[in-house]
Structure formats: structure tokens, C-alpha cells
From TrEMBL:
Signal peptide: none annotated. Keywords: Hydrolase, Membrane, Metal-binding, Metalloprotease, Protease, Transmembrane, Transmembrane helix, Zinc. The lineage of its organism: Bacteria, Pseudomonadati, Pseudomonadota, Gammaproteobacteria, Methylohalomonadales. GO terms for cellular component: membrane. This is Zinc metalloprotease.
């Protein structure tokens, strides 16, 4: 059921984002009087098709939901009737061709602004950024953070939830800049604390929780060790665990909450354990052996193949909400889109220069998982997910790689400088290079996805 939810959320998300991207090309092309032959969401066999408009444009929904395209009248792709030559894409002035190609990525960024605006208007509810415990000699301890502190702002941005705190700090980690926090202590006094994150990297964050790396244990709502999902063919599944089971003890030692269960299981990789369960008001015991899983940092932990409902009821004293009026939401949406665009470019730059690992890249499997998780949380979380992916699509499509929109824009800039189009043979070589790069990238991200699933 969870897998089906992820697949549906992925198809919905990609369908929305691809449609908006291709509509950018379509809309500007129509403004430039280019004849549109086909508007396709997806590739491969058509699942649905209809013709609309005076030009008989064919609108298609295809079987493979990993992209889309707008096919325009073009002499390079077939014979064009003399009466329609003025409507062929290749006959249009350089400025119009540039605008048509640029419109796709630009519409992705516009969509991100709209999604963030709606997200802030609807309001995001999460766990209030209250510090539970601080690890001695950690980055947080050296900054002077203490149990009971509430982080009310990071830099000049207010923070109502831990999610907001984390997303801002990640950007600072990429830049390698110190993080200035405004903190309200348990007595109500407000002070400034500075986190020295010079020793942190993107790879550190990928290998474990950002807050854990900082030495912060958030104050969390109670999270009982109640099973939400059981992974097929896992130790838990083979032992007969079911959704709704509450694990109350491991080898006779009481389990206080989910986090205590995780800690005990992780330390028992490959060792038989006895779990005490509560099911239908009755207690029973099962035996199983946690499988060994290797984390990205190389450490090995035990896993039994169960997940918990990560969205427990949040008590009022721990609930944080970020909600703003329409104009404030729009302003925040514009700023957030700009920040995420720059962050995406900086992360890509660090990966290219070797300062960050390619393991930080995610592919369609991970995106499907994130889509499912965000959709399950609520509309605000799903809007935030759509905005992040839309920014990524917009920025990546602007990279000067042949086959991407950015590659075409690069050719147009060369044409502008030299006064004539880039030759067909050169473009053909560029397409081969671009195809090799994209296939290599897809191989890396799919490998990363599979490694995460197996890990």
C-alpha cells in the first residue's frame, strides 16, 4: 500500500511539473506564432490523445512519466509547406527562439514561487524548535545552546519549526558560513548563539541527521514503538509482526519509545533477540535476528524491517506553525525560490569540483519516496516538495549541456556572437556528448537510489 502511495504521488508530482514546464515552451511559442504539432506529457506509447485548436495540435499523455516535450513545426525535422514556412520554429528570429526555449525552465521557477506561496499561506505545522538535550563537546555545546532553549530565528529568518531551522542551516553548510541563532531560553531571555559549522560538509549531512551532527537532540512529542509498516521479507515480516503491534520490550528490557527501540535494535545486528509485543490487548513474544545494514558513513547497524508513524499527534506545547498572509507568503515564496536556485547551483558546483560526493544526488526512486512521504503528511508538505523539485528541474535544465534547454540556449548565444547558427555536425557531436553525460548521470542517481533502498 505504501509503495502504491509513493507511485501515485510521484506520477501526480511529475505530471504537474512536466506539464507546467512544457506549457512554458508552448505558451511562448504560441505568442511567437509557431505552429505546435504535439504537446506530450510523458514518453512512449500514448495512453490518451486528443486534437484541439485551429492547428489541430495533438495533446498526449504517454506511458513513461519521466518528462515530456512540445513538438513544433521545423524544417530540420521534415518538409514544411511553403504557406507555413513563417510558422516554423527554425525560421523565427534568434530572440524568439531563445525566449521559447528559456520559457520552460522559467515556468518551473514561476511554479516554485506559486507553490511556496501557497505553502506559506496554507501554513506548515511541525515540531517547535525546542532543544531537548545537547551533546557535550559538540558544535551546539560550544555555541552555548542548552536544554530548554527555543530557536526563534536563524540569521534574519524566523523559525517556527525544526524543519525551517534545518533547511536554513543546510544552506549555510554549503556556503561554509557560521550560523547565527536567536535563542529564547527557558526563562524567556533572548540571546544570540553562533554555530561554527566549518567542520561540517554535505557528505556529513547525507550520512546522518543534521541535528545529530550539531549535537542537538530536539524535544519531541511521545512516539510509541508502534509498528506502522512491515517491510516484505524482512526479519519482522518473517517473525509475524503486523501493523499496529506495539513493541514494549527487547530481551526483557522495557522499551520507552520508538527511539529507544531503534537504539537497541541497531546495537544487535546479527544477534537473535526476543521482542515482547502488545496486540489486541494481549502480550506475546517473537524471536528474530536483526539484519546488518551498512550506512553511508560505513558503519553497520541492525534493522528488523519496521517503520513507525512519523507524524504523531503533537501536543500544543510542542506544536509550531508557520502561516502568513498572501503578500508576506508571496514575498517569502520569491525569496525561497531564489535561495533554493542558488543552493542547487552551489551543491552541483561542489559535486563537480569533488568537494561533495555524487552520493548526494537522488533519482526517480528517491523522488517517488519523498513524494509519497510529503503527500502523506499534508498539502503544505507536498507543496514544499513540488517547489523543491520544480526549482531543481528549472536549474538543471538551464545547465549548458546539449539535449537540455540550457544546451540550446548555449548554441543561441554562440549564434548571437558569431552571427550564424552552430553547424549541424557540431550540434550532432554535442548531442552525443550530452546524451553520454545524461546517461551517466541517470546511472549514478539510480545506483544511489538502489543503494539507499538496500541500505
Amino acid at each position: 500500500m505504501e509503495v502504491l502511495q509513493h507511485i501515485i504521488a510521484f506520477i501526480v508530482a511529475i505530471g504537474i511539473l512536466v506539464t507546467f514546464h512544457e506549457f512554458g515552451h508552448y505558451w511562448v511559442a504560441k505568442r511567437c506564432n509557431v505552429k505546435i504539432l504535439r504537446f506530450s506529457v510523458g514518453f512512449g506509447r500514448a495512453l490518451w490523445r486528443r486534437r484541439f485548436g485551429p492547428d489541430g495540435t495533438e495533446f498526449v499523455v504517454a506511458a513513461l512519466p519521466l518528462g515530456g516535450y512540445v513538438k513544433m513545426l521545423d524544417e530540420r525535422e521534415g518538409e514544411v509547406p511553403a504557406a507555413e514556412l513563417d510558422r516554423a520554429f527554425n525560421r523565427k528570429p534568434l530572440g524568439q527562439r531563445f525566449a521559447i526555449v528559456l520559457a520552460g525552465p522559467l515556468f518551473n521557477l514561476i511554479f516554485a514561487v506559486a507553490a511556496y506561496t501557497l505553502m506559506y499561506t496554507v501554513g506548515m505545522t511541525g515540531i517547535k524548535p525546542l532543544v531537548g538535550q545537547v551533546e557535550p563537546e559538540s558544535i551546539a555545546a560550544e555555541a552555548g545552546l542548552d536544554s530548554g532553549d527555543e530557536i526563534i530565528a536563524v540569521g534574519d529568518r524566523s523559525t517556527g519549526t525544526w524543519a525551517s531551522v534545518a533547511e536554513i542551516i543546510v544552506g549555510r553548510v554549503v556556503d561554509g558560513e557560521p550560523v547565527r541563532l536567536q535563542v529564547r531560553d527557558a526563562d524567556g531571555g533572548v540571546s544570540t548563539r553562533t554555530l561554527d559549522i566549518a567542520t561540517l560538509s554535505l557528505d556529513d549531512i547525507a550520512a546522518g541527521s543534521l541535528l545529530t551532527r550539531l549535537g542537538i537532540e530536539p524535544r519531541r512529542p511521545p512516539l510509541p514503538a508502534r509498528v506502522a509498516q512491515v517491510v516484505d521479507d524482512s526479519p519482522a515480516a518473517r517473525a509475524g509482526l503486523q501493523s499496529g503491534d506495539e513493541i514494549v520490550a527487547v530481551d526483557g528490557m522495557a522499551v520507552a519509545d520508538w527511539f529507544a527501540l531503534v537504539e537497541q535494535v541497531q546495537d544487535r545486528a546479527g544477534e537473535p533477540v526476543t521482542l515482547t509485543l502488545e496486540r489486541d490487548a494481549e502480550r506475546r513474544q517473537v524471536e528474530l535476528t536483526p539484519e546488518t545494514a551498512t550506512l553511508e558513513d560505513g558503519s553497520e547497524v541492525g534493522r528488523i524491517g519496521v517503520s513507525v508513524d512519523t507524524e504523531p499527534d503533537i501536543p500544543a506545547e510542542l506544536r509550531g506553525t508557520e502561516r502568513y498572509g498572501p503578500l508576506e507568503s508571496l514575498a517569502r515564496g520569491v525569496v525561497r525560490t531564489g535561495e533554493m536556485s542558488l543552493l542547487t547551483l552551489r551543491v552541483l558546483g561542489k559535486i563537480v569540483t569533488g568537494e561533495a560526493s555524487v552520493k548526494n544526488l537522488s533519482g526517480p526512486i528517491s523522488i517517488a519516496q519523498y513524494a509519497g512521504y510529503s503527500a502523506a503528511v499534508g498539502i503544505a508538505a507536498f507543496l514544499g516538495f513540488l517547489a523543491i523539485v520544480s526549482v531543481s528541474l528549472g536549474v538543471l535544465n538551464l545547465l549548458p549541456v546539449p539535449l537540455l534547454d540550457g544546451g540550446h540556449l548555449m548554441y543561441y548565444l554562440i549564434e548571437f556572437v558569431k552571427g550564424s547558427p552552430v553547424s549541424e555536425p557540431v550540434q550532432a557531436v554535442g548531442q552525443q556528448i550530452g546524451l553520454a553525460l545524461l546517461l551517466g548521470l541517470m546511472s549514478v542517481v539510480i545506483y544511489n537510489d538502489i543503494a539507499r533502498l538496500l541500505g
